[in-house]
Amino acid sequence: MYKSVVAFLSILLLVSCAEKKSTKKFVLTGNIKGLKEGTLYIQRIKDTLLVPIDTIKINGDSHFASEFDLQSSEMLYLFLDRGVTNSVDNNITFFAEKGKMNIETSLDFFTSDAKITGSKNQELYDEYRKVVSRYVDQDIELLQKKIKAYQANKTDEVAKIDEEQRGILKRKYLYTTNFAVNNGNYEVAPYVALAEIYDINLKYLDTIQKTMSPKVAQSLYGKKLNEFIAARKKDGK
């Protein structure tokens, strides 16, 4: 009887350990239509540098798969080394989170054709980028007008355009703040705060910090945001 109980408890312990280990497991699958040969690198940013997590050789079959432990939801990069063919279209960013994700794309339009599924953070980030791209487009339009105004020595028009650009930047910052506050249950919130509005008034970062869920506050980007805010307060900025 004693041996049976010990054996049963041992099995429970092994199952429990396996479950704990699997909760951090990340599986990425995908297909790059038209790719016959090349190398894929899954990378992350570490100390401002991109470092590889996994390397996948493609030889004939355009499908790929990778599996590794992911401690926290994180923005990762799928880099394609085409070999002899050079292209600037070779990097896909994706917001990885534990579980299964899939990336479908093509060799000809590697970045723009990418369809990424399986991540709520990615879904939210796509929504965010769609809105922010409008502000970027508006700013580029104004920049082109400003260059022409400079060339024509129209100083009043340049000043007016400067004011319009400041307005666009303000709207972008306010939208990003609201986005982060409204999505405090997801790691994308502290990520956009750090990546897009790190230099905003501290009161807005404080608001984002307070709306993060306990889980997000303990995530990779949640901790980084907390550290960043503490450093800015220490520096009086």
How would you characterize the overall build of this protein?
The chain is α+β, with helices and mostly antiparallel strands. The chain has two domains: 24-117, Immunoglobulin-like (Sandwich); 122-235, no CATH class. Helix content is 51%, strand content 26%. The protein contains seven helices and eight strands, in the order αββββββββαααααα. It has helices at residues 2-22, 120-151, 155-182, 188-196, 202-211, 214-217, 220-235; strands at 25-33, 37-46, 49-59, 63-69, 74-81, 91-96, 99-106, 115-117. Strands 4-1-7-8 form a four-stranded mixed beta sheet, with helices on one face. The chain has a four-stranded antiparallel beta sheet with strand order 3-2-5-6. Helix 2 (120-151) packs antiparallel against helix 3 (155-182) and helix 3 packs antiparallel against helix 4 (188-196). The longest helix has 32 residues, at 120-151. Mean pLDDT is 90; it is low at 1-22.
